[in-house]
Amino acid sequence: MEIEKEMKKVTLGHEFGAGAACLKCKDKCEGFELHFWRKICRNCKCGLTEHNVSMNSEENKKVGKLFEDTKYTGLIAKLKTDGIPGYQGNMVTITLPSPTTAYTVSVTYEWAPPVANKHLVMRYIELLPPEKRPVAGSEGAAYRRQQMDRQLPEHDQDPSKCHELSPAEVKQMQQYVRKCKDEALGVGDVMLPEEMAQFQAGGQGAAAVGGGSGGSGLGPKSCHHCKKPMLLGEPAVYAERAGYDKLWHPACFVCCTCSELLVDMIYFWKKGQMYCGRHYGDSEKPRCAGCDELIFSNEYTQAEGQNWHLKHFCCFDCDCILAGETYVMEKDKPICKPCYMKNYAVKCTSCQKAVEPEAQRVSYGEHHWHAEPDCFRCSGCTKCLVGQRFMAVKNCLFCSVECKKKVMA
């Protein structure tokens, strides 16, 4: 019954953000129109986060869904309100006395660690790279939104966001999501190492913070990522899944694959490594290069060093299926031959015809020629120049100074 319920869900994803202007392409994009399964705009091929769409409500729903039904009780306490899965992103405004004037200074952050000590929160954010600090309206806030979309794809956890899964695929995906929540998912805790040591030395570690690795609790005082020492009085990030004997500098709490800051400190711990949601998924299942979804089918294809659903190995421009067909890779995207000839093929400077992808050609600067006697030849004496020395002047070719003088005179 649960599988049937997932199969019957209808989402309004194609209506969300419809018509929004592209911040990257400007007037070249007619407005956001979601491709049926590629997770990009049909008009400009950019993603939703690159369009002028407020993502806060969708992000909150997505993260709330991620933590729904989790057995990780510490996270439930942090992220649930009145028993309803939700996530507010913890936007905060912090007001502190100015170090240089008698006035106070207020800063609003789109996200900050849920710590009562505002001075500790401020110091945590100060230890992040300046361009990644989530100050509202800043470059760092935009970075956080991009990483929220990149690191936590909603189609990695919700079958209703995927394209035409079979009942067997839905079942496999549900098992994957359950495993992910039970064995890997976590949220970092910000704390002073000396306070953590006091908790553990006093035997309060398990009760206060949900467990640890045992022992005295004093543990190493060097960052698990960079191995450099932690400074006294500086906040550290802890991960319950990893054990509280390990700690990280705020700027070192990153994915082991993409090296990006773990958005909102949401992590996935596996075999001694810290992952973002996307790369944890990649470590468990192949990912389709066409639709960006994890592949839960036993049958899929591999091409150009990437994995593809059989139905998604298609031309990036027209969506025609490419199995058994000639295609060309353009910017790591497969393009069918007709679309390549129409949109990408270079024109021969001599005959002005498009150069087919399988044809041999000669390129010099911005000019291209068919590597044939009728096209790549001297403009003076018509000698074939394939494999010969030549000189190029504008769009003309010459085999010698004499031919050049004769034609250019």
Automatic annotation (TrEMBL):
The organism of origin for this protein: Fundulus heteroclitus (Killifish)
Sequence ranges assigned to domain PET in this UniProt record: 90-197
Location of this chain's protein in the cell: Cell junction, Focal adhesion; Cytoplasm
Keyword Cytoplasm: yes
Compositionally biased spans, kind Basic and acidic residues: 146-162
InterPro entries according to UniProt: LIM1_Testin, LIM2_Testin, PET_domain, PET_testin, Pk/Esn/Tes, Znf_LIM
Name of this chain's protein: Testin
Source species, domain of life: Eukaryota
GO CC annotation terms, alphabetical: cytoplasm; focal adhesion
Annotated LIM zinc-binding domain residues: 221-284, 286-346
Mitochondrion is among the record's keywords: no
Region feature Disordered, mapped onto this chain: 135-162
UniProt KW keywords: Cell junction, Cytoplasm, LIM domain, Metal-binding, Repeat, Zinc
Protein family (similarity comment): Belongs to the prickle / espinas / testin family.
Pfam families to which the protein is assigned, alphabetical: LIM, PET
Molecular function terms from GO: zinc ion binding
